[in-house]
Design goal:
Chains A, B: GO terms for molecular function: DNA binding; DNA-binding transcription factor activity. Chains A, B: This is MerR family transcriptional regulator. The structure is a homodimer. By secondary structure, the first copy, chain A, is an all-alpha fold. Chain A has six helices and two strands. Chain A has two domains: about 70 residues, Orthogonal Bundle (Multidrug-efflux Transporter Regulator, Chain: A, Domain 2); about 40 residues, no CATH class. The model of chain A has no long low-confidence stretch (mean pLDDT about 95). Chains A and B meet through α3, α4, α5 and α6 of A and α3, α4, α5 and α6 of B. Bound molecules: zinc ion (4 copies). One zinc ion (ZN) binds next to loops of chain A. The site of one zinc ion has 4 residues of chain A, from loops. Chain A binds a DNA duplex (30 and 30 nucleotides) through α2.
DNA sequence: CTAATGTCTCTAGCGACTAGAGCTTCAAGA
DNA sequence: TCTTGAAGCTCTAGTCGCTAGAGACATTAG
């Protein structure tokens, strides 16, 4: 049985984050000592590792909850898991596309100003004021 | 003089968003009709366009506030504008790098499961449970 | 003049935490 | 065994940039 701090060190999560996951129902309530402190078993530490990894990959809490539900019913079809992973992939790809466009505009904008001029004639200011300077939609 | 709804249509912002920008001090309080409705002048519409464009490029509100301050003092040095643009560019690049790594992992994960199996032996589940499957840090 | 649409203020909610106050419990050394 | 300092507890509120809704008032077209 591990204290919350020990589990935090093992999983790379922060202590308040672990409590938060419990609060939102991602993790079942752990046992408690007589003095009301949380004590986690190996299973729960493993589950927190799962959550951590899924969060690191950007999955939202709600999706992780569905995946955990699935993990608790190992003989169910994994169709939902595939769907969730696919959705997350698409989400990331959309964000990538948007950020790629932004990177192009921002590097142009940043390149256009050395910071040695005056606000009135600054390329950064002009670019922000008028989207017509831009080479793409965003 | 334009009503808030008209300005919303002109700028592409939503009505509550414009009120929000006023609330957080990005936009000075506009004139009001006798009946207490907001009426915007051309300058304010332009400024809202500036804000919209900067937000579309991902600049945080605080940075935009600093840029607007600069726009109101056209003879000041644009060093701060250059700095803000540079920081935003770096921020976007960091996010791009992270998302690129995530895309690699997620496309591997999604490819590994057709959704026709069972949760217990699902590649998605296994990949989330163990970072050792991953080809990079994230 | 009426009816429909627009606008007003205020509060609360989103996602995923994070920070802090004020208190209690645990564990290790003397 | 006692003490002390770290760790844990609950609860509230704050972060960011909006968005939604309630209930009341203003404007405008027909
Ligand atoms: Zn400049
Ligand atoms: Zn643009
Ligand atoms: Zn599968
Ligand atoms: Zn991984």
């Amino acid at each position: 049985m591990f204290s919350i701090g020990t589990v935090a060190r093992q999983t790379g999560l922060k202590v308040p984050t672990i409590r938060y996951y419990e609060q939102v129902g991602l993790l079942g309530a752990p046992e408690r000592t007589e003095g009301n402190q949380r004590r986690y078993g190996k299973d729960q530490v493993e589950r927190l590792g799962f959550i951590k990894h899924a969060r690191d990959l950007g999955f939202p809490i709600e999706a992780i909850a569905a995946l955990i539900d699935l993990a608790e019913h190992p003989d169910r079809s994994c169709a939902q898991a595939a769907e969730i992973a696919q959705r997350q992939l698409e989400d990331v790809r959309e964000k990538l596309e948007r950020l790629t466009r932004l990177e192009a505009e921002l590097s142009r904008i940043a390149k256009g100003c050395s910071g040695t001029g005056v606000a009135d004639t600054c390329y950064v200011m002009a670019s922000l004021a008028d989207h017509a300077h831009c080479g793409s939609e965003h």
